Amino acid sequence: MRPTAEIPLEGRGQAPPLPPAAEGRAWVILLAGGEGQRLSCLVGRLHADRRPKQFATIIGTRSMLQHTYGRALAHASPDRILAVITEGQERWALSQLPQLPTRNFLIQPRGLDTGPAVLLALAHLLERDPDATFLSLPTDHFIFPERELRRSVARAFSALQEAGEESVVLLAARPAGARSGVGWILPGAPVPRSPSPLHRVARFVEKPPLEAAEALLAEGALWNTFIMAGKARAMHRLIGKRYPGAAGEVSLYLALRREGAWKRELDRVFGRIEPFNLSTQVLEREADSLLMAPLGGVEWSDWGTPQGVWESLLSLGWRHKFSARSAAGNALSRQTCRFPRCVSQREVWEGVSP
């Protein structure tokens, strides 16, 4: 697929605010607290400060965080968008999202993987809006054209409401082939009364070996984009079922923050939360409690790895865009980073597919 009608990466500055969609009490959670080690060499070619990948501009004029914020504006106003970051990332996050209210930046004392990050956002959200509907967006993904994402999210919210389901739906992308570095979702039975495609989840498989990925592709499995939507209390309950201790500590942490506790006390409480991965340690084990909907008509890729970036650039014919950005980057990193040879295993990459 090679779309040509919309090229958001070439826009100037922040995307203009879009009117909120008709989802009602929708909030958006931006997951932006990762360290981005898998892409650090590539990012170093573009930014001398070695910032985490979500704050990097790979091509175009905006960072991946800013692109994700633009997607969020299609479903919520800035006061209903929360950004989860990690201590030490404030200088990038606050400068890149000046429109976001300061109270909407949720700062973790340290990164504990995706589970505690989502749990922190949900607990904070439920304190402010107990009946909230949420949409969570990873900030290191590539999606093109973005208008199709908006339609898919709107359909998912509508389908949940029409089907009377208080659950969480994950958006799944049509696979471009068998890939071992992504999560897979196998669709189950269709949900009755749903006006658009909505299925139970039969099975999750996180980053299987290539042979297993080929079998999943043959079975009709889709790629898990980790984009989730639904009732905040349903997702919070699901995580709390598996990790009740973490849910309790997060609630205590937020209560102490409201009371103005000393940072040492806040760090001590947060430090008692065990790290866990939301995909492998919650979603895979609670598959029968979840729903899935297709994310159609888009080019989707996880830009958390050089392979994901390279595949998107090849698919869309945008290799020259990275070359233009890279040429102005850090000279030392250009000498040491082998992208895209680390992916293509070729000595020369201009004009050559891996």
Describe the structure.
With 354 residues, the chain is α/β, with parallel strands linked by helices. 38% of the residues lie in helices and 19% in strands. Strands 6-9-7-8-10 form a five-stranded mixed beta barrel. A hairpin with an 8-residue loop joins strand 7 (183-190) and strand 8 (199-206). Helix 4 (114-128) packs across helix 8, helix 7 (232-242) packs across helix 8 (244-258) and helix 8 (244-258) runs antiparallel to helix 9. Residues 1-23, 331-335 and 345-354 have low confidence and may be disordered.
Q: Strands, helices and their partners?
A:
Elements: E1 26-31, H1 40-44, H2 64-72, E2 81-86, H3 90-96, E3 105-108, H4 114-128, E4 133-138, E5 141-144, H5 146-163, E6 168-173, E7 183-190, E8 199-206, H6 210-219, E9 222-231, H7 232-242, H8 244-258, H9 263-271, H10 278-283, E10 290-295, E11 299-302, H11 306-316, H12 319-327, H13 331-336, H14 341-344
Parallel strand pairs: 1-2, 1-4, 2-3, 6-10
Antiparallel strand pairs: 4-9, 5-11, 6-9, 7-8, 7-9, 8-10
Helix pairs in contact: 4-7, 4-8, 7-8, 8-9
SSE pattern, N- to C-terminal:
EHHEHEHEEHEEEHEHHHHEEHHHH
Structural category: alpha/beta
Biggest sheet layout = 5 strands, mixed, barrel
Q: How much of the polypeptide forms β-strand, as a percent range?
A: 15-25%
What's the Cα radius of gyration? 20 Å
Percent range of helical residues: 25-40%
CATH topology: Spore Coat Polysaccharide Biosynthesis Protein SpsA, Chain A
Low-confidence runs of at least 5 consecutive residues: 1-23, 331-335, 345-354
> What is the assembly state of the chains in this entry?
single chain
CATH superfamily heading: Spore Coat Polysaccharide Biosynthesis Protein SpsA, Chain A
Distance between the termini: 18 Å
